[in-house]
Amino acid sequence: MKKVFFCALLTAVLCSVCAASEEEVFTLNRQRMVEKQIERRGITDKRVLDAMRKVKRHLFVAAYLRNAAYEDRPLPIGRGQTISQPYIVAYMTQAARIGQNDRILEIGTGSGYQAVVLAEIAKEVYTIEILQPLADSARLRLEGMGYKNIKVKLGDGYKGWREYAPFDVIIVTAAPSEIPEELASQLKIGGRMVVPIGSFYQELYLITRTESGFKKEALLPVVFVPMIHPSGEDE
Ligand code: SAH
């Protein structure tokens, strides 16, 4: 009996030591990711860098992918979708010039990772996902993490979220073939939209709503999954 108790105790102690050191490795890898993949490539906004240092990307992917969570690439999240490369998440977040009182709309919740990075910086984040299994699991994950300033909706991102419009910032994380007009109309004057536009290869654009219309600047060539039409077709 004593032996069994001792073995159980030893296992419990060893497991907690392993778990602690695994967390430490993830933390170290995350700090390295920010330094090598993000700061070195020119991202300078301190709030973006702090959020990327803080948010645990390994908690947004399946267990078998956790050890790859801090690599310089997108990762699969199921249903043919991907969580973007960390640099692209940081780049889009910086490009949107987010203020701490901003209200943000994200299209393409996916794993919820980009939404959490945004929620660390802004006041409120509204995020829309068209695929039910992804919307459900992201909602559970974000609630479990205790984020009270993120709302997830299952629906078609092309329609935006009129109820909470207008937004200071809209971040689109799947690619439409042209600027979705309904989304642009849900931007405040002075509001910014960061969106990849195109078919297989795309260009990332910063669209700014002005008093008289929209200013459109090309930022960077990118590859995103295509935005899905509710009829089931890709762009
Ligand atoms: N931002 C996500 C990654 C996005 S991948 C993250 O941080 O993990 C692109 C996501 O957009 C996918 O989950 C895909 O299902 C979703 N999507 C594609 N078309 C959409 C549409 N019309 N409306 C809302 N979401 C859409």
Q: What does this 3D model show about the protein?
A:
The protein is α/β, with parallel strands linked by helices. It has one domain: 3-Layer(aba) Sandwich (Rossmann fold), CATH 3.40.50.150. Helix content is 36%, strand content 24%. It contains six helices and nine strands; from the N terminus they run H-H-E-E-H-E-H-E-H-E-E-H-E-E-E. The strands form two sheets. It has a seven-stranded mixed sheet. The protein has a two-stranded antiparallel ribbon with strand order 1-2. The longest helix is centred in the N-terminal third of the chain and has 38 residues, at 2-39. The protein is globular, with a radius of gyration of 19 Å. The model has no long low-confidence stretch (mean pLDDT 93).
Please sum up the structure shown.
This protein is of the alpha/beta class and 235 residues long. The protein has six helices and nine strands, in the order ααββαβαβαββαβββ. The structure holds S-adenosyl-L-homocysteine.
What order do the helices and strands come in, and which of them pair?
Layout: H1 2-39, H2 46-54, E1 75-78, E2 81-83, H3 86-95, E3 103-107, H4 113-121, E4 124-129, H5 132-144, E5 150-154, E6 167-172, H6 181-185, E7 187-197, E8 202-209, E9 214-222
Parallel strand pairs: 3-4, 3-6, 4-5, 6-7
Antiparallel strand pairs: 1-2, 7-8, 8-9
Helix pairs in contact: 1-2, 1-3, 2-4
S-adenosyl-L-homocysteine (SAH) binds next to strand 2, helix 4 and strand 4.
